[in-house]
């Protein structure tokens, strides 16, 4: 009999700010890469229409690097602020969000855009940290509680011999 070790996936908020920075990069790498690829594909297919492979790759890079850079700036900014301040609070996330928003200003080459997006992203990150600290949700709950076989689930049992709930019987006693 073998005992299996189930490893729990690393949660971004499981360690305080300033610790486990490489694991935090690993947590955000997949969703950020997928988002950057999706938005770049939308840009290439629907907006810019580059001609040739090199122009297409250049357009993918032009659209993807700011997204990846903003996510990296958030992780580095919030963790650097946490390690320098030796605190795990909302200000670290505001600094991380502001540094991520500043990447947008650098990308657009516009100071006003950078300031506005940095302020907005900082307030949004501060709000998210507030929700994490108070165990609430900002936009949607982390875990959905959907009953088995509900109307909006993929776990439907359309077979003729499905299990009957409760104490229902087939009438053949």
Topology:
Elements: H1 21-48, H2 53-85, H3 90-108, H4 111-133
Helix pairs in contact: 1-2, 2-3, 3-4
Family: Belongs to the complex I NDUFA11 subunit family.
InterPro entries: NDUFA11 (IPR039205)
Membrane topology: Multi-pass membrane protein
Question: Can you tag this structure with a few keywords?
Answer:
173 residues, mainly alpha, single chain, 4 helices
Detailed description of the structure:
- By secondary structure, this protein is mainly alpha-helical.
- The chain has a domain at 15-133.
- The chain contains four helices and no strands.
- The chain has helices at 21-48, 53-85, 90-108, 111-133.
- Helix 3 runs antiparallel to helix 4.
- The relative contact order is 0.09.
- It is a multi-pass membrane protein.
- One of its GO terms (cellular component) is mitochondrial inner membrane.
Shape: extended
Q: For the residues shown, what is the average pLDDT?
A: 86
Question: What's the Cα radius of gyration?
Answer: 23 Å
Total number of strands = 0
Q: What is the string of SSEs from the N terminus onward?
A: HHHH
Query: Which regions have little confidence, pLDDT < 50, spanning 5+ residues?
Result: none
Strand content: under 5%
How far the N terminus sits from the C terminus, by CA atoms, comes to: 41 Å
Going by helix content, strand content and strand pairing, the class is mainly alpha
Helix content: 55-70%
Number of helices: 4
Biggest sheet: strands, sense, closure? none
Membrane topology: Multi-pass membrane protein
InterPro entries: NDUFA11
Organism: Tribolium castaneum (Red flour beetle)
Keywords: Membrane, Mitochondrion, Mitochondrion inner membrane, Transmembrane, Transmembrane helix
């Amino acid at each position: 009999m073998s005992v299996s070790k189930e490893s729990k996936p690393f949660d971004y908020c499981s360690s305080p700010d300033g610790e486990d920075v490489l694991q935090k990069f690993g947590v955000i790498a997949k969703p950020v890469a997928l988002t950057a690829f999706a938005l770049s594909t939308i840009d290439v297919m629907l907006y810019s229409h580059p001609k040739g492979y090199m122009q297409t790759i250049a357009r993918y890079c032009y659209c993807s690097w700011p997204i990846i850079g903003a996510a990296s700036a958030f992780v580095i900014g919030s963790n650097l602020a946490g390690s320098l301040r030796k605190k795990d609070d909302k200000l670290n996330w505001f600094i991380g969000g502001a540094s991520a928003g500043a990447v947008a200003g650098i990308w657009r080459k516009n100071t006003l855009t950078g300031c506005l997006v940095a302020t907005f992203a900082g307030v949004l990150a501060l709000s998210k940290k507030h929700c994490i600290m108070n165990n609430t949700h900002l936009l949607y709950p982390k875990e959905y509680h959907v009953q088995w076989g509900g109307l909006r689930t993929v776990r439907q049992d359309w077979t003729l011999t499905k299990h009957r709930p409760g104490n229902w019987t087939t009438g053949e006693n």
